[in-house]
Please model this.
Amino acid sequence: MKVIIVKDYQTASEVAATEMLAVVKNNPKAVLGLATGSTPVGMYNLMVKDHEMNGTDYSTIETYNLDEYLNLPMNHLDQSYRHFMDVNLFNHLNINKENTHVPEGFGDANEACVAYDTKLAEIGGVDIQVLGIGSNGHIAFNEPGVPFELGTHVVTLDEQTRQDNARFFDSIDEVPTHAITMGIKSIKSAKKIILIATGSNKADAVYGMIEGEVTVDLPASALQDHENVVVILDEAAASKLTK
Ligand code: GLP
Model:
């Protein structure tokens, strides 16, 4: 793992955007693996700014998102990850929405998993995958204990994860209990992975991911043996690293 420590969130977003734009500019048919959560928003803003200023072309770029809530309450459809991606990125680029893939959060979930894995297998792994990390070390919605060998699957969300995400809902009771997520195996099929973590609430998870043992108890530790991972941290998220 290559670890880059910068002073703050804005600089971390700039480093991440530079990585993404290098891929997009180098290959008009690149396939991007995208993530939700508050962490990548700064990077998405910079990609939008670059598109506006430099006209970077997304017309033949394809994207795959990591995960989606299952059966969101109808009054909270604005919390769907599809909506998040439209508002924060896709609506501001010249991307063909048909080329943007997010797992389907309604209907037959098992069928949606198979459909997603079929598409991912067809493309043979994304060119670059952006990741955040949960405070319990989850990546996408791969919660502690989930086997690393799984492809796209349905998960029961951890209590910790539901509490972390409750700020986006009126109350914890409205936070979905289940989600659909790409598995660790699918995530690791990416040719390159960039993981962004900022803030002191991520410091324990970051320590476990980089310096801890590889264990299903800390899903992000599975990235240790991937040959092309760049971890971008601010000083607070890096504060527990010892090496
Ligand atoms: C959610 C997402 C993850 C994300 C995590 C951290 O659980 N499924 O992909 O990494 O939240 O979110 P944040 O970036 O808001 O801290």
